[in-house]
Amino acid sequence: MSNVKIAQTIDSLFMVIPLAKRKLLKAEPFIEKSELNPSHHQILFLLDDLGAQSISETVRNLGITKTNMTPLVEKLVTKGYIFRTHSQSDRRIINIEMTPAGKTYIGGIKDLLANNLMEKLAGLSDEDLDSLMISMKKIKDVLTKL
After folding, report:
1. Is 1 a member of any domain?
2. How many structural domains comprise the chain?
3. What is the full per-residue pLDDT of the chain (146 aa) written as tens digits?
4. Is 83 among the domain residues?
5. Which domain holds residue 66?
6. Which of 9, 49, 56, 128 has CB 3.0 to 4.6 Å from 124, enough for a Cys bridge?
7. Which distant-in-sequence residues (6+ apart) come within 8 Å of 64 by Cβ?
8. CA angle, residues 86, 97, 116, in degrees to nearest 5
């Protein structure tokens, strides 16, 4: 791929990602008033999607430093949303896993976000929805190749 195409793709990503976040994933008032910040929610979403994993895996998956991860995990443990366990194969490895309360909490957040998206997408025509679905599939297919 030429450098011109790469630069154009980067420019498009710089425009589309913030636009999608602002238009589609604007934080619900519930999330804004929550004691948890976006990083806490990212951890919970990740654990909900991938299941239990080591803190090191979570750090890699989210791009959060280990130093920042410690207080995030501590708050989620204190709130009762996750718990820590030691790996059975290597006691030095600490795994984190969601509790039933954490699953209930993040399920509620997902429901709020899904309802918000439903309302926004309901205003689109069938043609626009088809176009968006095709585009999202293409984006997903390309991003999984990275």
Report:
1. no
2. 1
3. 688 999 998 898 889 888 887 787 766 666 666 788 888 999 999 999 999 999 999 999 888 898 999 999 999 999 999 999 988 888 888 999 999 999 999 998 888 888 888 988 999 999 999 999 999 999 989 988 88
4. yes
5. 35-143
6. 128
7. 39, 42, 58, 72
8. 160
Give a yes or no: residue 16 inside a domain. no
Residue 57 burial class via C-beta count within 10 angstroms: exposed 0-12, middle 13-18, buried 19 and up: middle
Distance (Å, rounded) from C-alpha 68 to C-alpha 71? 6
- What are the phi and psi torsion angles at 88 (to 5°)? -70, -25
Q: Give dist(CA 42, CA 143) in Å, integer.
A: 19
How far apart, in Å, are the Cα atoms of 33 and each of 29, 37, 126, 140? 6, 9, 35, 31
What six digits make up the tokens of 94? 């600490």
Q: How many Cα atoms are found within 13 Å in the side-chain-facing hemisphere of 22?
A: 6
Q: Distance between CA atoms of 52 and 24, rounded to whole angstroms? A: 28
Whether pTM > 0.85 for this model: the answer is no
CATH number of the domain within which 55 lies: 1.10.10.10
DSSP state of 37: -
